[in-house]
Amino acid sequence: MPFLSQLMKRHLIRWCAVILLATPITSAMAAGRQPPGQAGTQPSAMTIHIPIPVTPLAELYGNIHQQLATHRSHGREWVTLGGGSGFLKYRLWPDEQGSTTAGDRLLSHSTVPFGVEYAKQIKGSITKIAECGLRDASTGTGRLSVTVATMFKQGRSYTVLPASQVSAVQSAQSCVLSEQGVDASPLMAQVYKSDLLEILPSVDRKAASLVTLKPAVTRIWNELQEPLLLDETEQLWLVLNPETTAAAGVEPLSGSPASGYGVIARPSVVRGAKPTARHLPLPEPQNQFHNDGFHVDFALQVPIEEANQRLREAVIGQEWSLGVGTIKIVGATLYPLGHQVGVELILRGLLPLTLRLKGTPAYDESAQRILFREVDYTIKERTPATDLAEEWLHEPLRQELAGRLTLPIREELDLMRQALEKGLNRELAGGRLHGTVRHLSLDDLAVQATSLSVRFNTEGTLRYDARADVAAP
């Protein structure tokens, strides 16, 4: 009786494809959607990246040299060298400066013109014995090339803590001391680096007061609470339901440092009218973020009357030949079996009988098809003829059905993936949403007394990249 497995494969494929994708959205289906924020919704992780506003910071760090020039002109001028045998005094002039970003760092570059005086302690007093660069009051004669690198750490309550270090202080132009004929640039580089290291902590503290990301994070947090329309025709909405946040580190975004925050949400997809947005206040960030990926469940409840009607439209009237006669389907009904799926087929013709099939739905991701494990069947009519057929054919027929009863859904899953990825990649008010769908699978298919319950699950990533001006002061 191999015709039974061929029948099931050919006609159940058509029926399930119709049920899953062609069933129109009705009020009854919309009423069965999962409410936003329901406790049973699977938690998901997404990330927010907010560019750190480096323009005011670049200006602040670029003025370090002017601060040191003022300090040396009006404060302690002589720098003690070695064990006190020598002394150095320097002057700085307006310098050339600029800044760049490199990954998660801000680099401040400067060319600093300078002039120095060199002195010794003679008979208890500091006596100048040589100088260079001081006679050119506009540019000096020596030059240093200076690079300060500023890294960023995340502080409490969406703050950013700059931490700077001197990457390089190198001689760019010699400054030869009179009389001795010695280039003072290497010595000046050591002195100037020491002075920079002394002043940088106070500059970092001032820089931290210039950067506050909480208003930008609050704006994005509120935006993420608004339902996102995935498909206008089908009236599909993605409700992210963000719940908590956590610091996720500083990393590059378009070549500039950006502060990252993880968001734990409980997303769901609903159908029908736009859901009401929640308005939870922005929580304080937790210390650590565990990114376990972004997951979304698609739940669909099809009224059992509609499911049975579409089943009958797909299979009733189909007939085939056995060589000595024909078989025709005249009735078809779904029936609940808990976590299994049951289908009752009424056959007429050569073998007038009622066949009941049952199986546990499973998903073969590599082949993108639904198959049925633990497949079995019973024949409702008990006659000597059916009893004899059961005795000889039950196990071979059961194995045949188990091997052939499958539901290819490659096209449907591709369409679902495309619709979801389109909805997850879009421009928002404060930036752009980037989403990927790595896996999309059928999570559950069950026949209930009043409905056919179908649930899909997606595995992927979701991130929100804010615009550069969102956090600008």
Fraction of residues in helix: 25-40%
Largest sheet: 7 strands, mixed
Q: Count every beta strand, where a strand is a DSSP E run of 2 or more residues.
A: 23
Overall tally of structural domains: 2
Beta-strand percentage? 35-45%
Distance between the termini: 77 Å
* Average predicted confidence as pLDDT: 80
- Number of H/I helices: 9
The Rg value, from CA coordinates, equals 37 Å
SSE class: alpha+beta
Unreliably modeled segments = 1-39
Q: Which descriptor suits the 3D outline?
A: rod-shaped
Describe the structure.
The protein folds into 2 domains: 1-52 and 213-473, no CATH class; 55-210. 27% of the residues lie in helices and 44% in strands. It has 9 helices and 23 strands. It has helices spanning 3-22, 27-31, 55-62, 64-74, 185-210, 214-224, 304-315, 384-404, 410-424; strands at 44-51, 79-81, 86-92, 96-102, 105-122, 125-132, 142-154, 160-173, 228-231, 236-239, 242-253, 256-265, 268-271, 294-303, 319-321, 326-337, 340-349, 353-364, 369-379, 406-408, 426-427, 431-447, 451-466. The strands form 4 sheets. Strands 1, 11, 12, 14, 21, 22 and 23 form a 7-stranded mixed beta sheet that branches. Strands 2, 3, 4, 5, 6, 7 and 8 form a 7-stranded antiparallel beta sheet that branches. Strands 15-16-17-18-19-20 form a 6-stranded antiparallel beta sheet. The model is unreliable at 1-39 (pLDDT under 50).
Short note summarizing the structure:
This protein is 27% helix and 44% strand. With 473 residues, the chain is α+β, with helices and mostly antiparallel strands.
